[in-house]
C-alpha cells in the first residue's frame, strides 16, 4: 500500500544534515574535502563567498570543490574581490581558483563554472602551476605533492 508523504515533511528531510558529524576536532593526519554544487554564489552576503570561506574555516575543511558558481571569473574586479574576501576571512595560506568560460558576459553573472578553495597547510602541497581548468569552466584540477 502506497503512503502519502506531505510536501512539508519532504522539505524538512531536504534541510536536515546528511553525512558525517563534523562537530569533533579534525585529526591532525586527516584531510577534509568538501564538494558541492552551490548553484550560484554572490561575493558577499548570507549566501556569498565570505560565508562559504567562514564555514570552511569553522569546519576545518582543507579543500572545498565548487561547481556552478555562476561568477564571471574572467573579469578582473570579480577575481580580485573574490581573492580579497578569501584573504580577509582566512588569513594565512589560501588558494582560490575559479574557472568559467572565456566568453565575455555583460555583467558579473555567467552560468556554470567550477573551482577550488584550498586553506591551511595543504596549500604547501600544491605543485607549482598545479591548479588548472578548461576554457569552458567545466572542470578544475589540482595537483598535490
Key terms:
four-stranded mixed β-sheet, 145 residues, single chain, globular
Computed structural class: alpha+beta
What is the number of strand segments? 6
Q: How far is the first residue's CA from the last residue's CA?
A: 55 Å
Order of helices and strands: HEHEHEEEE
Q: How much is the radius of gyration in Å?
A: 17 Å
Uncertain stretches: none
Shape: globular
Provide mean pLDDT, rounded: 83
CATH third-level topology of the domain at 31-127: Translation Initiation Factor IF3
What CATH architecture of the domain at 31-127 would you give? 2-Layer Sandwich
Q: State the oligomer.
A: single chain
Strands of the biggest beta sheet: in what spatial order?
1-2-4-3
Description:
The protein is 23% helix and 24% strand. The protein contains 3 helices and 6 strands; from the N terminus they run αβαβαββββ. It has helices at residues 7-15, 49-58, 76-89, and strands at 33-37, 63-67, 94-99, 114-119, 126-133, 140-144. Helix 2 (49-58) runs parallel beside helix 3 (76-89). The protein has 145 residues and is of the alpha+beta class. The longest helix is centred in the middle third of the chain and has 14 residues, at 76-89. It has a 4-stranded mixed β-sheet, covered by helices on one side. Strands 5-6 form a two-stranded antiparallel sheet. It starts with 6 loop residues before the first helix and ends with a strand. It has a domain at 31-127: Translation Initiation Factor IF3. Helix 2 links the parallel strand 1 (33-37) and strand 2.
Amino acid at each position: 500500500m502506497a503512503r502519502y508523504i506531505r510536501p512539508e515533511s519532504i522539505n524538512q528531510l531536504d534541510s536536515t544534515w546528511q553525512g558525517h558529524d563534523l562537530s569533533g576536532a579534525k585529526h591532525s593526519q586527516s584531510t577534509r574535502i568538501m564538494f558541492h554544487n552551490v548553484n550560484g554564489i554572490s561575493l558577499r552576503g548570507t549566501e556569498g563567498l565570505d560565508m562559504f570561506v567562514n564555514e570552511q574555516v569553522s569546519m576545518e575543511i582543507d579543500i572545498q570543490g565548487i561547481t556552478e558558481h555562476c561568477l564571471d571569473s574572467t573579469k578582473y574586479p570579480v577575481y580580485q574581490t573574490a581573492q580579497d574576501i578569501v584573504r580577509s576571512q582566512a588569513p594565512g595560506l589560501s588558494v582560490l581558483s575559479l574557472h568559467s568560460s572565456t566568453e565575455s558576459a555583460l555583467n558579473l553573472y555567467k552560468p556554470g563554472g567550477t573551482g577550488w578553495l584550498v586553506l591551511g597547510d595543504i596549500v604547501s602541497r600544491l605543485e607549482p602551476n598545479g591548479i588548472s581548468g578548461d576554457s569552458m569552466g567545466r572542470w578544475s584540477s589540482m595537483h598535490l605533492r
